[in-house]
Amino acid sequence: MSMFCFQCQEAAKNIGCTVKGICGKTDEVSNLQDILVFVVKAVANYSSQLRKNGKRYKKVDEYLFRALFITITNANFDGKEIIEAIKEGTDLRNFLKNELEKENIFLDPKFEGSFMTTFEYTGIENIEEIAKKVGVLRSENEDVRSLREIILYGLKGMAAYGFHAFNLGMTSNDIYDFYEKALLATSDNGITAEKLTEMVFETGENGVKVMELLDKANTSAYGTPEMTEVNIGVGKNPGILISGHDLKDIKELLEQTEGTGIDVYTHSEMLPAHYYPELKKYKHLVGNYGNAWYHQVKEFETFNGPVVFTTNCIVPPKSDSTYNERIFTLNAAGYPGWKKLKIGKNGKTDYSEVIKLAKSCNPPTEIETGKITGGFAHGQVFALADKIVEAVKTGAIKKFIVMSGCDARMTSRAYYTEFAEKLPKDAVILTSGCAKFRYNKLKLGDINGIPRVLDAGQCNDSYSWAVVALKLKEIFNLNDINELPIEFNIAWYEQKAVIVLLALLYLGIKNIHIGPTLPAFVSPNVAKLLNEQFGLSGITNVENDLKIFFA
Q: How far is CA 460 from CA 108, 174, 207, 326, in A?
């Protein structure tokens, strides 16, 4: 066993990847990611002490989120970039250590003199040994390991959302306080399983906070998402395809391509950019090209122009792929041999090389035509509140099914398409994240003008459905959110889905179903606890699950 990773839904045999990740990462990259997580904890160790004493450093705040974001599934496969992040982290740790000494502040005794305070990266030769020392399997107790990793993966999801908010100038010292506390809790050998369980739910609480922060950052910068029809065909001009989640990046790309004769297309999780007034106003934002992230090895071939990855999800190209020279990455995203775009002194990405390349490329090849509708974040839903409430009161809408989350490669995910197709005609799907691509092009119709698939946006916009549920609870004067005619059938894949799930549990939402499999990192005892306390369970088959949801 040269590595161990079980953080995503594709974990081998639903146990863990031990030689190479199903995602495509090598054992070397996996081990480097484990070491990077450890270094992030070391930075948090020192930063937390300074933060308690009113000392805060912007470069540390940015690093804490970006570095953990690098370790999210399908974000970064480039060992050299990860090594640079490790070295950057140890330099920051040493800087903070000096700052502590200046302030005469002392570390928590349990970490003083530990490997966390002394580790330095010395080369690739001994990373497997170090990764075993600091990685997942350092925890011998299965339940403690499970709780530690649930917290860590929730923090990885928080890191992604916090990083996007940070890029838009939105931060919260309270969130950083918790983030550092939780990171250190996962390294504390003296902490009990009971305390870790409490920390799991506190992670959910802070997940709500960070999604609220990102929602505020996005809407403050780009306006409130609104119902929008998005073109899925192509134009006649050369194009640039932008994938990932960071709206600041697409805004800067739209600004720099305006008037150049280059069209811009969104891909996968960037689709919701079309819903924001300050982004959709650009006429050369032509449409969305393709489907969920895992189709990219085929769709990037036919797009013909440059592709920009702002974040995950990257699929390693095939050996005969022709698009490698057309791919650019940003932020936490990276892949060996792909060009990395840098942030300039003005705080913006320079897309001139991408634009120059696009001008020499053919226009995208059409792979489909038509339109899809989205933009139903909580602001737009509240604008339709009277209509929705009336439909519920008259019985036109009997049930809402939240089907937010992730899409991925497993053939068993066809379940979600079939589930959507077989829902009763008086049910409405509430979705966000790339899970939508399993059914957002189906002709499911509407109920009194309300589309039967309401797409709030990206995975973080699952927050909208929590806000909507709380508002409906208030409107219908209910005592418990679980009395609403809302069911949750969530598809998960990576760590952002983990923080969404923990946030829902913190809000008291019960009887959530997740699939297509339960996480490998949830031990039987922890799964039993979550089932008994919250009714959390997996999926079975469409017919059986429909009976459960509509009993």
A: 34, 19, 10, 29
